[in-house]
Amino acid sequence: QMLKKNITPTMALLEEKILRPKFTQEAFDRIKKQQMEGFKQKNSQPSAIANDVIDKLNYGKNNILGMSADGTPSTISNLKLADVEQFYKDNFTTKGAQVIFVGDAKEDEIVPQLTFLGELPNKKTNIANPPTPAPAGKTKIYIVDVPNAAQTEFRIGRVTNLKYDAFGDYYKASLMNYILGGDFNSRLNINLREDKGWTYGARNTVAGDKYTGTIMFSSGIRADATDSAVTEVLKEMNHFYDKGITDEEIKFMQSALGQRDARAYETLGQKAGFLSRILDYDLPKNYTTRQNSILQNISKYDIDAAAKLNINTAQMNILLVGDKKKIMPGLQKLGYEIVELDTNGEVVK
C-alpha cells in the first residue's frame, strides 16, 4: 500500500528488494531467534495449539498440509541462510506471475514502472502438489492437556472432497453452512452462546482450495461445559443432517447474504482480493452475479443435499485443548474412544 504521490519511489524500493535482496546472516539469525521464541508462546495458547494439532489429525503428520506454515522448532533450527538464498533462486520467476494493482492510477502510469520484473528469469518452478489426505476414521476424542485452562478450545471436523468451486457443490455447501454455523444467528452460535452462555462465539466453517476441503467447528467453551458442548454440537449437526433447513432460514440466508455481498468489495484490499480470486481460479468476471442467482433460486432440496454430502458425525476428529483434570470425567461418559496428545500432536503414552 502506498500514497499515489509515492508510487515511483515505492516501485524503486520494490525493484531493489525483488532483484537485489540482501540475505544477511545477521537478519537471518534474528528472524530465526524470533521464530523459536514464538514457538514457546504458541505452546502456551490453547487456540494456537488447537489450530496446529487439528491439521495434523486431518491431514496426517507427514502431509505438508498438516504442518504449520510457521514451521516447527526442528525445521527452523535446521534451516541455513544458504537454504533461503536457494529458495529465492529457484522460485522467483516471471512464469505464471500476476500483478494486481488497485488505486487511483491508470494502466499507463503503472505498467512502465514494472518493467524491471522482466529481469527475473522466466523459468518453471517445481512445487509438488500435496498428497491426498486419508479420510477421517471412526469418530474419536483427542485431548491436549493445558493445566488450569479456564476454557476448552474445540475443533470438530474432517477433510472433505470439496475443493473450491464458485458455482457447484462447494458453493452450495457454504450456503448450507451459513445457517449451521457461519453467522451470528446460526444454529450453533444461538445454541452455545445465546441459549447456554457457554462461549463468546461458536462457528462452523466450510473451506476449500485447489487441493482439498474441510468442514470444521471451532470455539472456546467454558471448561465445565466441555462434555455438554460436545453433545450439543453433534446434536445440531445431526439435526441438520436429518431434518435439513427450514423455509424461514432460506429466506433469512438469501436476504442476509445478498446484502453482505453488496458491501463485500468496497475497499481497495477487497477489490484486489476479488481480482486475485478470479485469476487464481480462472473465474468469469461476473461470477458473483452468477452466485447471487444461485443464492436467490436455491431450494430446500439443494441445501439438504449439501448437508447430506458434508455432515458426517460418525467420521469426525474431535479435538479438545484444555485442562484434562476438569474435562476428562465428563468426556468418559460420552462413549467415544479418547486419545491424549501432546502439543505436537504425538500420542502421550
SSE topology:
Elements: H1 7-19, H2 25-42, H3 46-59, H4 73-78, H5 81-91, H6 107-110, E1 140-145, E2 151-160, H7 169-180, H8 187-195, E3 199-208, E4 213-222, H9 226-243, H10 247-262, H11 268-280, H12 287-297, H13 300-310, E5 317-322, H14 324-332, E6 338-341
Parallel strand pairs: 1-5, 1-6
Antiparallel strand pairs: 2-4, 2-5, 3-4
Keywords, separated by commas or semicolons:
6 strands, 349 residues, 6-stranded mixed beta sheet, alpha/beta
Overall description:
The protein is an alpha/beta fold and 349 residues long. Helix content is 47%, strand content 13%. The chain is built from 14 helices and 6 strands. The protein has a 6-stranded mixed sheet with strand order 3-4-2-5-1-6, sandwiched between helices. The longest helix is centred in the N-terminal third of the chain and has 18 residues. The model has no long low-confidence stretch (mean pLDDT 94).
First-to-last CA distance: 50 Å
- The Cα radius of gyration reads 23 Å
What characterizes the major β-sheet? Answer: 6 strands, mixed
Give the class from helix and strand content and strand pairing.
alpha/beta
Mean pLDDT: 94
Please trace the helix and strand order, writing H or E for each element.
HHHHHHEEHHEEHHHHHEHE
Number of strands: 6
Helix count from the secondary structure assignment: 14
Quick take:
The protein has 349 residues and is of the alpha/beta class. Helix content is 47%, strand content 13%.
